[in-house]
Amino acid sequence: MPEPSRRTRRPAARPVRRALLALHRGAHRVDAATPASRDRAVDALRACAILGVVLGHWLVTALVAKDGALHTVSPLQAMPWLAPVSWLFQTLAVFFLVGGHVAARGLATARARGDSYGRWLRARLSRLLRPVAALLALWAVAVTALLLAGAPLSTVHTLWKLALSPLWFLLVFAALTAATPLVARLHPLWPLAVVLHVDLLRFGLHLGPSWLGWANLAAGWLVPYTLGAAWARGELDGRRPALALFLGGTAATALLIGCAGYPASMVGVPGGAVSNLNPPTLAAVTFGLAQCGLALLLRDRLRRAMARPLAWAAVALVNLSAMTIYLWHQTAMTAVTAAALPAGRLPGLHTAPDAPAWVACRLAWLPLFALVLALCLAAFRHHEQGRRRPLDRASRVVRRHLPPTKSPHHA
């Protein structure tokens, strides 16, 4: 058979070439629309933190079909050697670090403009809380429909609990944001001392009641949040503070796991005697210190990487819809799992996560989870971003919707 001529091959290649050209042009527009004073490393860290949480949940949470209902199971129960996955993808400390940094800078900027605390707080919280209404409304309808269709009550409870679980983080983050004027200059050692004493009473002396651990829900995440505020004040500039946080946090976490009996997993494992995350333990906080130190060490490299228009456009896209991605990622996973139930017990989706083969199968499902999340993003991102604007007005979109940061070179 004769080889197709260039003339016959060219039309098929044209749409791909045009799409790539449009992608490059769009990336350069976003790059050009970004103020030179913006510290792009901050946005890169936020994007990495959000995507880390999403991938972590998709990998360590399984919905197993058993006795005609869905139940939540973790692969870490049967395969504890997967604990390093939680070290890679439990990135909430980095998000609180960035949140404290951005909030402290934003509050200082608002005060310099003469804006009131109330006006600043409304602007901050509206971006966080607007997407929540859509999530609650959809799940109210979904739960009603499932119950009317005769779905098992345990399945309905499992699905809505998993889908709404991201809200706990949002409530804590909103509370710390509201308390920024009080905690912005708080030394991180103070909340760290609270966590230390709470854990000493709970696990060392066995004196405190179980509910005492919930004091760490605020104190534990206040540690990276106040570190972010210290970063905004310039107290963490240079490699020495970052290296001290990384090495100190790593050593402390290793000692707590190896000598004090804390779990190796940095996420909760169903059936485990102690969860490092629910509520946060001292090991989770020291691990967060190590993460924050590593994030600060990577600032210069991230700034150089974000100088590339395509990389920066991808990070900007995640930041524009960060809360939507976070709130809807569990819904995307549950939607795929529930919709595929009529097809039978599919490996990596409905089967028990008790063997390495399950991990390989779960990895194959991740692109479908991502596709459904992209559909959720397209449907609900306007709740976070406001009304959509055309691409030729990218400057106004970037300036208005990306959370404010400022480059250290312009501080």
Description:
- By secondary structure, the protein is mainly α.
- It has one domain (38-410).
- The protein is 70% helix and 2% strand.
- It contains 19 helices and 2 strands.
- It has a two-stranded antiparallel sheet.
- Strand 1 (62-66) and strand 2 form a beta hairpin.
- Helix 2 (40-60) runs antiparallel to helix 4 (83-89), helix 2 (40-60) runs parallel beside helix 16 and helix 7 (153-164) runs antiparallel to helix 16 (322-339).
- The longest helix has 32 residues, at 117-148.
- The radius of gyration is 23 Å and the shape is globular.
- The model is unreliable at 389-397 and 407-411 (pLDDT under 50).
Q: Radius of gyration over alpha carbons? A: 23 Å
What structural category arises from helix and sheet content?
A: mainly alpha
Which percent bin holds the helix content?
55-70%
Mean pLDDT across the residues is 88
The arrangement of helices and strands along the chain is HHEEHHHHHHHHHHHHHHHHH
**Shape verdict:** globular
Number of domains: 1
Short description:
The chain has one domain (about 40-410).
